[in-house]
């Protein structure tokens, strides 16, 4: 019985180390947002939420158009009608 507690403690410690070792590290080459883009973003947040038409048109008027190839986000599975086909 005297060995059970130290064995349990060491197993917990090894589990924590293993969990930390498998955590992915963030990439170092993430693009940085310029000060101009950040100021435009903060100004356009008042006109609507990011991704909305009003927000996108505000950003475009400030010279930051939405990049091509960015479609609509996937539908939320919890919304009514999600997963139903439209015919």
From TrEMBL:
Keyword vocabulary terms for this entry: Signal
Signal peptide positions on this chain: 1-18
Region (Disordered): 45-87
Protein name: PsiF repeat-containing protein
Upper classification of the organism: Bacteria, Pseudomonadati, Pseudomonadota, Gammaproteobacteria, Aeromonadales
């Amino acid at each position: 019985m005297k060995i059970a507690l130290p064995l349990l403690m060491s197993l917990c410690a090894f589990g924590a180390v293993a969990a930390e070792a498998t955590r992915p590290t963030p990439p170092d080459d993430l693009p940085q947002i310029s000060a101009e883009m950040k100021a435009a973003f903060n100004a356009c947040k008042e006109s609507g939420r990011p991704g909305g038409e009003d927000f996108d048109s505000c950003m475009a008027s400030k010279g930051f158009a939405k990049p091509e190839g960015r479609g609509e986000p996937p539908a939320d599975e919890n919304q009514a009608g999600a997963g139903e086909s439209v015919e």
